[in-house]
Amino acid sequence: MHSPTALQALIEKAIPQIDYPKYPVDLYAPIRYIMSLGGKRIRPVMVLMATELFTTEIEKAMDVALAIETFHNFTLVHDDIMDNAPLRRGKQTVHEKWGVNNAILSGDVMMVESNKHLSKVAVNVLKPVLDTFNATAQGVCEGQQLDMEFEQRNDVSIAEYLEMIRLKTAVLLGGAMKLGAIVGGASADEAELMYNFGENLGVAFQLQDDVLDVYGNPEKFGKQVGGDILANKKTFMHLKTLALAEVEETPYLTSVGGNQEDKIAQVTQLYNKYQIRELATLEMDKYLEKANTALDTLNVPEEKKTYFRELVQQILERDR
Amino acid sequence: MHSPTALQALIEKAIPQIDYPKYPVDLYAPIRYIMSLGGKRIRPVMVLMATELFTTEIEKAMDVALAIETFHNFTLVHDDIMDNAPLRRGKQTVHEKWGVNNAILSGDVMMVESNKHLSKVAVNVLKPVLDTFNATAQGVCEGQQLDMEFEQRNDVSIAEYLEMIRLKTAVLLGGAMKLGAIVGGASADEAELMYNFGENLGVAFQLQDDVLDVYGNPEKFGKQVGGDILANKKTFMHLKTLALAEVEETPYLTSVGGNQEDKIAQVTQLYNKYQIRELATLEMDKYLEKANTALDTLNVPEEKKTYFRELVQQILERDR
């Protein structure tokens, strides 16, 4: 078995070798740019990990891995336009560098590039691969739509939030796992178990990310601690606190402007008072348990599951 | 053989039956809206026409026809954002009605919907169908990129313009024809001939559209006569005139502001002086001849080609 780090290295090697057309220059330059910005390549690594559960020939899955990574980066390009974000991984976003119109169009062509990668898989798995990919892509778009709509609403429920992060974040991890399994020769049932593993891991991962926004070690977290608090983002923690807090406390959560450090301190105090971190962790653990159950059910030797167990463990342990 | 009108009726019947998800409402409402705005459904009709050259079972091609129409409408949604267009077919554009972010995202999900339609074709043609569709989609994006870039440039050559309209407009007609042929059971050579027919027809169609912008019957044309002139659009006619006119005449072509009727009259006078309409028609005829040659070479009974010959004839005769 390859370690996730070894698989990441394979992905990093494959990305610069993708043969995009040369012309029109400004249509393809943004694609090379965003694809080269790095990150942990979690999604394509998951594809290859899942493939390796069922076959040693992981190169079979490289096209799907690149399709997933290209699709993920396409969503970053378009989401950054919608969020009006100036920076991505510490560098200028595509629309800042090339303009909004160019960014829309380069994003569109990335979707085509994803589909070109996909179409290279063996014909005997092409149909299930397409069906899984399309369902995944659709879910991600639905998640982004809900995320945008929730910004404008004041009555978002916790169930709605969980459904939103399932679609926006977790479906793609589930899809990556399922696609890797299919290409590796898994049965439909096995592929579905891998989907369940990935999706539940994904929800837990996002809940963990919400917790780390408040309680993370600034040096390890990689984003501004308290960023969600300042943006009044309707996370699980925010919504849970709204549900539990006294009427006079809720303005701290929804206030706009004012001193940033004060706001972060006040909201964190509320979170502490209502033990929101513990409640979020309990919620997260439900999803991790489901992920582990899917893994338990999967009929492959336990030693092949080692790296998958570690994925779960990493979320359990990260900065607690 | 079904007439194009009969095929259009089949498309019009199929579109409202497409089963989009209900939720999130504002992600899918724009798709139903743009798909219902009508138009002549030229591209999906072409898919079905091409299929019927090779099989009587045209229903085999309906999914591909809907994929092509959905993709075409997706390009309209995103192009209208880029062009900042308020109206499409006399109605509000999607981004005017739902906002830019929503329009970006609904467009994205239309691309997924196109791919979902495509994935339903028979497995034995799935791979060539995907390859053809992806090459087509990529070409259309490249054409849109060139079109945007040309607005900012003052050194666009006629060859570049022809390449731009080939990509932006003609490749999709070629792709529609080729996809229909593949699904109908055509050989690779036959499918390629259909592509050539469609692509050459498409370039001729766009050149005709440029001519009609100036010389069209306002009641039949459906757009503002002189619209390209007022926008200083770098069409074949514009570029040819720039190449032929005296230095003191070129400011008429490139002026901004001023009286609109005067500008249209002045530029039309220049076009008349340099016989630009005739030159454009000669250029168009080259492409129509190539389209006819592709049709001649195709080894199917001549009576099956009737409606294809009429497509060529319609361009030859339209408002001359």
Write the layout of secondary structure elements.
Two copies of one chain form a homodimer.
Chain A lengths: L3 H11 L10 H11 L6 H11 L9 H22 L3 E2 L2 E2 L1 H5 L1 H19 L4 H30 L5 H27 L3 H28 L2 H4 L5 H4 L5 H9 L5 H5 L5 H14 L2 H22 L8 H12 L3
Antiparallel strand pairs in A: 1-2
Can you tag this structure with a few keywords?
homodimer; 320 residues; mainly alpha; Farnesyl Diphosphate Synthase; 2 domains; two-stranded antiparallel sheet; 1% strand
Q: How is the CATH topology of the largest domain in chain A named? A: Farnesyl Diphosphate Synthase
Structural class of chain A: mainly alpha
Return the string of H and E elements of chain A.
Answer: HHHHEEHHHHHHHHHHHH
* Rg result of chain A: 20 Å
The CATH class name of the largest domain in chain A reads Mainly Alpha
How confident overall, as mean pLDDT of chain A? 95
Question: What is the percentage of strand-forming residues of chain A?
Answer: under 5%
* SS elements, strand count of chain A: 2
Number of helices of chain A: 16
What are the low-pLDDT stretches of chain A, counting only 5+ consecutive residues below 50?
A: none
CATH architecture of the largest domain in chain A: Orthogonal Bundle
- Helix percent of chain A reads over 70%
Tell me the span between the first and last alpha carbons of chain A: 29 Å
The CATH homologous superfamily name of the largest domain in chain A equals Farnesyl Diphosphate Synthase
Dominant shape of chain A: globular
Q: What is the subunit organization of this protein?
A: homodimer
